[in-house]
Amino acid sequence: MADDRRDDGGTDRYRDAPGCRGPGPGESDATYVRMAHQGNLAEIAAGQDAQTNGKDVCVKDVGAALVRDHTKLDADLSALAKQGGVTPPNAPTPEQQAALTAVKAKAGSDAYDKAWLKAQEDAHTKTLALIDKQVSQGKDASTTQAAEKARPVVTMHLNMVRGGTCHAV
Predict the structure, then answer these.
(1) Neighbours of 62 (CB within 10 A)
(2) Which residues, in sequence order, are CB contacts of 155 under 8 Å at separation 6+?
(3) pTM (two decimals)
């Protein structure tokens, strides 16, 4: 496997490369940190968009909750990344960006809220799977604890958008 190759000095060039794992979390833990950070960025952007473009007060309120909660989760995650020497990406994934772009295209129409709720249900379902994988397979205790701490928040968000219906905050 290419990632296991070592340079002449015997050091793992991938481990020591910028943006890769440092002395703390292993690569799977670092991957969790990076992906969870991108998810937080995507949820903050989606929440801001819902506050601007949502028609239903519930959608606007859920958007505000996403901004508040994912900002807090990301602050904790950023501290963990710094401690572990992980450089998180500075933007959501292209897939996350495309999902938000597709929802934004419906702004001003009655379809916006339904599309936003569906996108959030999909996003939070994926985030829960990421969290559960970290909890069951993570090697770094601090990273796994951060995932465990995030799980009830993400579950609450999923429950607020489940079934494409907005549920009171």
Answers:
(1) 27
(2) 128
(3) 0.83
- Tens digits of per-residue pLDDT, 45-81? 999 999 999 999 999 999 999 999 999 999 999 999 9
Task: Tell me which residue of 114, 133, 124 sits closest to 158, measured CA to CA.
Answer: 124
- Which segments of the chain have a pLDDT < 70? 1-25, 169
Token pair for 4 = 């296991």
Q: How far apart are CA 110 and CA 67, in angstroms?
A: 23
DSSP 25: S
The pair of structure tokens assigned to 165 is 């219906």
Q: What are the angstrom distances between the C-alpha of 61 and each of 24, 27, 95, 130, 135? A: 37, 37, 25, 25, 30
